[in-house]
Specification:
This protein is 52% helix and 5% strand.
């Protein structure tokens, strides 16, 4: 999609039909929404943790009393940031498992699907098996099955 200027008055060099921008195809596909939201959350957590650790370091150099509480916060932030990065990996893996394998020539899913489809077609086109003789009391319409007591 290309946007154009409404009028050519945006500047002296702007022509009336000049294109404002041209969309180029992306190199990669967009991440799924749950994965993207967990990645954004993880980046924010890591950024806050790094900022906290940096401030804690400089406060330690100056001998401020705030250095110790911020150091504890940096340690807790490291634990939370690790959880955030693991959340991205787990969410991505869960998404891939729920929505299937990407069907690329290198994917093993395509060959397996083809084999299953071929087996189903062969099973449908094969002649039916001859009926087997039912076991005693099985599928004969007699219920309860006869016992050997003579009352049945």
């Amino acid at each position: 999609m290309a946007k154009k200027y409404e009028d050519g008055a945006a500047g002296s060099a702007a022509a009336p039909g000049r294109v404002l921008w041209v969309d180029q195809p992306a190199g990669r596909r967009r991440m799924p929404d749950p994965v993207r939201s967990s990645a954004v959350r993880a980046v924010l957590i890591v950024a806050v943790t790094l900022t906290d650790a940096t401030i804690s370091f400089f406060l330690t150099l100056t001998g401020s009393w705030l250095a110790f509480p911020l150091a504890l916060g940096a340690i807790a932030g490291t634990v939370v940031a690790t959880w955030g990065v693991l959340d991205v990996l787990i969410t991505r893996q869960m998404w891939n498992q729920r929505h299937g394998v990407v069907s690329e020539p290198s994917s093993t899913a395509r060959g397996r699907r083809r084999e299953r489809r071929r087996a189903r077609l062969e099973a449908r086109s094969a002649p039916p098996l001859p009926p087997r003789i039912p076991a005693r009391g099985e599928a004969t319409g007699i219920w309860p099955p006869r016992t050997g007591t003579g009352r049945g």
